[in-house]
Prior knowledge:
By secondary structure, the chain is mainly α. The chain has one domain (20-417): Ammonium transporter AmtB like domains (Ammonium transporter fold, Orthogonal Bundle), CATH 1.10.3430. It has helices spanning 22-50, 56-83, 100-103, 114-133, 142-165, 170-174, 182-200, 205-209, 216-235, 243-271, 276-290, 299-309, 312-318, 325-329, 336-354, 357-364, 375-381, 384-417, 426-431, 433-436, 471-474, and strands spanning 86-88, 91-92. The protein has a two-stranded antiparallel sheet. The N and C termini lie far apart (61 Å). Residues 1-8 and 458-481 have low confidence and may be disordered.
Amino acid sequence: xxxxxxxxxxxxxxxxxxxxxxxxxxxxxTAATLVALQSMPGLVILYGGxxxxxxxxxxxxxAIYAFAVTLICWVGWGYRMSFGDKLxxxxxxxxxALDDNFLLGQAFLGYFPTATMVWFQFxxxxxTPVLIGGALLGRMNFVAWMMFVPLWHTFSYTIGAFSVWNPxxxxxxxxxxxxxxxxVIHLSSGVAxxxxxxxxxxxxxxxxxxxxxxxxxxxxxxxxxxxxxWTGFNGGAPYATSTVASLAVINTHVCAATSLLxxxxxxxxxxxxxxxxxxxNGIITGLVCITPAAGVVQCWAAxxxxxxxxxxxxxxxxxxxxxxxILRHVDDTFAxxxxxxxxxxxxxxxxxxxxxxxLSRLFYMVPDWEKYIGLAYALRTxxxxxxxxxxxxxxxxxxxxxxxxxxxxxxxxxxxKLFVPLRLSKDELEIGxxxxxxxxxxxxxxxxxxxxxxxxxxxxxxxxxxxxMSKSTASYEPHMV
Length: 481
């Protein structure tokens, strides 16, 4: 359309108001999309390749559904409950984020429209239930999952996000440091996933005994998308194209690389072989651990955090997993408790130790010397009480998120159980995708008819069709429960 034909009431400058920083807006939209790509298609691909072949479709659809329904909940009420006006000290008032007057106004943090903020924070809200799903794959009733996601988002995620990230939240006022979601996202998803797995129950005995990844290359590709997407995850947290954003990005990747190498070396040292699942676990634990600290610690600290996140969760997963009664009892399919809850709480504690006062003030834009100071720096500058206080606040934040998710997740599962079963039926557990969805992930062209009768051809595992995968891949199993 020629500019002379524009309506008289439309001014060219209305789409670019004076308060908007185009560079910040462009980066924030890019970062938001990188975060969204971690779920779609990152975790969809990771889950689809990491599970037994008979659960590939179900696992992918659980992730896709969670992503989609969270977006509807987010613009419908979730965003305002997390970042809107205070209802109580830990929760915001429900309201929509649909009106253009609201969406086109300036965000309460940053020089960009609220619509950008809504889209960026949606990526965080969406990935959290997708991660929870990683603990429930291979046995949760899909209808129960459809009910679980919006309920958990409403009654758990929004409480954690408001408490930690909203300036009116009680933990935010106290001074908890969670740069980009180590507590709000990863600790929450790890605890909620483990709790839900307790209520849903374990996989079938045959699946627990043998659960080979159906496509290791696809699994590694999904992990790579998650890793690179973390650039936006932590790099977008300052809400500006700032020096803090740049530091957060390099710290993120340094920590992940160090954690990967640490986990890999431990696998080689104790089992004699480098493990693909070990690489994935090392990447994830490093990314999770650095998240609460990404822009407030120095690069050497990020590397040290990577060494710790690649070793302690390795120990809990490979050693303590088989010794702890509760850990053995709960079937956490992808060890979300270890890779997210343990790594997230570890990151929260190490943030309280290594947070640099100068960097914290750059991020939080406050001159208060009594807040946001790591214990290591407090001891060096004679502010021991302030450092101990910060460490105590970090522990309070961790305890709150843990208790919140145990209670809310349990209540949600018990309520859902009143209406639909939490678990799939015996036939569905035995057969998988073909019984649950009427579809299969892989079918050889000359063997497709075998799957038309799921009652007869129930277990189409790699062992039955060795031509589908190599012998080494068919025998490969994640080091999971």
